[in-house]
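Supplementary Text 2. Reproducibility record for the structural model of the 103-residue chain.

All settings were left at their defaults, and a single model was retained for analysis rather than an ensemble. We include the record here because the model underlies the residue-level annotations in Supplementary Table 4.
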Amino acid sequence: MRFTHHIFICTNQRLKGDPRGCCANNDSEHFRSFFKQEVARLGLKGKVRANKAGCLDHCMYGPAVVVYPEGVWYWIGSEKDVTEIMERHIVKGEIVERLLIPD
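Retained model, structure tokens:
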């Protein structure tokens, strides 16, 4: 089975106070679980996969998320952000500009 989208959520752990930041210290594991709940809520099981990832090298924005196949990079700070990515990007194909990680 091929998925239409893969969502990778950084769950990398660093020591508190690391100057690079740390996605895990910003609730990334909770957000990964919430992405999975949203996949189920929207009836997308088997079509969309939400996976944990190691460091995605965007720690200062964390939690960092990348959506494939588009290769769009987001930061998330709330469940509302996760829902917006799911409803707008995954379902409607719209990029959520306000959550983009700068190049």
